[in-house]
Amino acid sequence: MLLLVACGSLGLQTIQLGAPTEGRVTISPAGTVNFGKVPEDGRPEMEEVTITVSGDAVRIEEIWVESRGGVFELLSQPPVPKLLEEGASMGVKVRFQPTSVADYTGTLLVSTQGGVVVELDLKGEGCRDSNRDDECDR
Questions:
Q1: Three-class SS string for the chain?
Q2: pLDDT in tens, 102-137
Q3: Nearest to 78 by CA among 49, 120, 55
């Protein structure tokens, strides 16, 4: 990108030539959020995820979670659609509450006005809790 500055009767003016920097959405933590072992039908495990914009502003259109059996759930998020300026971020909470002894996977998805969808893998394991003390049996 090339910026030209010109001096005129109204003062300095900046003229931008070339394409603007595209906005980019990242989700942290990166990779996979592992909720670990959680007792079935016990106390749920929660994790906070941060969505951040770099480059130009990005309009966040939708945030949702896909998972088998609905064991991963989006608990809190700012209202969307929402325009996030460069460097801005928003947090969302994801809950994992298994309903049986099994391995579970899911995906947190964030879509933008430009049609880009950013994904974050979610995983956790449902375990047995015979004592009902919110601890997995050994």
A1: CEEEEEEECCEEEEEEECCCCCCEEEEECCCEEEEEEEECCCCCEEEEEEEEEECCCEEEEEEEEEEHHHCEEEEECCCCCEEECCCCEEEEEEEECCCCCEEEEEEEEEEECCCCEEEEEEEEEEECCCCCCCCCCC
A2: 999 999 999 998 899 999 999 999 999 998 888 899
A3: 49
Beta strand pairing call for 72-76 and 117-127:
unpaired
First to last CA, the chain: 60
Q: The whole model's pTM is what? A: 0.80
